[in-house]
Amino acid sequence: MKHVAIIGGGASGLVTAIEAKTKDTDVVVFERNPQVGKKLLLTGNGKCNFWNEDQSIFHYHSVIESPIENWITKERQKEVLAFFQNLGIVWKEKNGYDYPFSNQAISIRNALEEKARQLGIQIQTDFLVEEVIKENNVFVVNPKKEHFTFDVVVLATGSKAIPKTGSTGDGYRFAKNFGHSLVESLPSLVPLVLEKALDASGVRTDVKVSIYEDGKFLREEEGELQITDYGVSGICVFLLSRYASIGLSKEKKMTLEINFIPFLKEDAYTWMESISGNRSISSVLDGFLNYKLGNALLKLCHINPEKTWKNLEKEKQLDLIEHLTCFKAKIQGTLGYENAQVCVGGIPLSEVTDSFESKFVPNLYFTGELLDLDGDCGGYNLGIAWISGMTVGQKIAEKR
After folding, report:
1. Closest by Cα among 68, 155, 16, 12 to 350
2. Is 327 helix (H, G, I), strand (E, B) or coil?
3. Which terminus of the chain, N or C, has less C-beta within 10 A?
């Protein structure tokens, strides 16, 4: 009988347990919370966007990206959906995003937990793993206390994101004790703090937003921007936040550039001339911008809102166009791990095999957020959890 310990009862840990369980394999899941899948319940605002039909590797990121295409294969994608179908999950697709038909993350969590218990997998909740060591080719969990021994250990503890769910980075410490290095863990998919926030808190508006590092363009996104009292939020911002975290950690100057009129395909100056007439500039802006945002931009440009476009000095006209099409804001920081959906960084992919096994310690595996592999918004990080969990679990089941 092969004895397997999975440390962490989140998304990747539960899938690993289910795939690893055979009649010759005893599997125990250690979870520090009173229940498994606590972070899973928060995904997709509780609706659980658990997969995305677009599995381009563009949506996945790592310091070393070359191995990613070995895991995000067509065959593996089919296996993931077949896995959830076999669990009894019915889902719906919306613009490529897959959600459980119930619109409840608890449907996914409950299905995983029930399947695990049906298979006879032991789930130890309220159990804090403080230390994992290996001696005489056997892994020992909590050697100074319970002294549980195992043939195989899977670290599925998650990253530092949302620490209230129990993700405090313990897995990083365990991995380091086994000789692994760490790509610095940083908040990602997180709101950004600007050096000087726009005086339009509460406004939501569709934009095109780009991020620059020391003046060098990195990436742009379109979507709904949420203006806050500290800076900006929204999915388009989340998708750029990993670059902000990495750049700021290297003391680079990180800048956002926002186009508030992304719908415009023609020259902005000519367009403003054509639509303004004899109306006040405030009235003109009201035609396509939230009034609060329009007034904030006029204030930044020191423009009297009652003036007409034709009565503005050319310098003021050009300044307003610049604020409308390429408003620049220096990024001061992020809202931290507490508000981050995931983290950049983790165990380097160069230190694991194609089955996510440690290259240093046989029968030690890593899954999910613990790896230096993060995804965009839209079900990609759960995709990493499912794929890594399935890969590891299947490897354990077949390995003698």
Report:
1. 68
2. strand
3. C
